[in-house]
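Appendix B. Chain record.
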Amino acid sequence: MCGIAGPSGPTGLFDEMIALWETATVFTALVVLHTIWFRVRRPRTEMRALLWLFSAGLGLLLVSLETSRWASAASDAPSESGRPLVLTSFLLYLALAVCYIAVYQGFTVVGPSAKILMLVASHPASVLTYAELRRALTDNELILPRLNDLVSAGLVTFDGTHYRLRPRGALLAEIAAAYRALLRKGFGG
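Structure tokens predicted for this chain:
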């Protein structure tokens, strides 16, 4: 088992902890940066901005890990499982970034179920009648925002009368249909 070296530099388990710390620090800094950036000036294409931000973060992480390795006496020390620390940190960062982007997208697009929950919660004693829900949940609340999202993402065009799928939209529709068929799910909510 690897021990912790003295003043000459970290080795073994201590190297792994430093690599994990650097990964967590870079990821947390990017989440904070993302929050500030999107509050100050929300980009037109949020997904592209997030992908750019986390790609830049990957570069920052790799530079940080290499700097630590140069400063360390054990620059080529693999982790106890035999995998290089840089690969472990890279995979951890990638997993965190993908999960964060997926969760972010899930929370920014408020679906019908979330709208109903927020509406009921916003009323006194969290009670609402069906008639009150019907009045509050109009096409402008549920359908129009989704259509506008599809148009702004370039998946659909609108000519004032008709919505038409663009090639990217058709591809995504085919992928979604194939995935739902694979899972034996219908087209319900």
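Further analysis of this model is presented in Appendix C.
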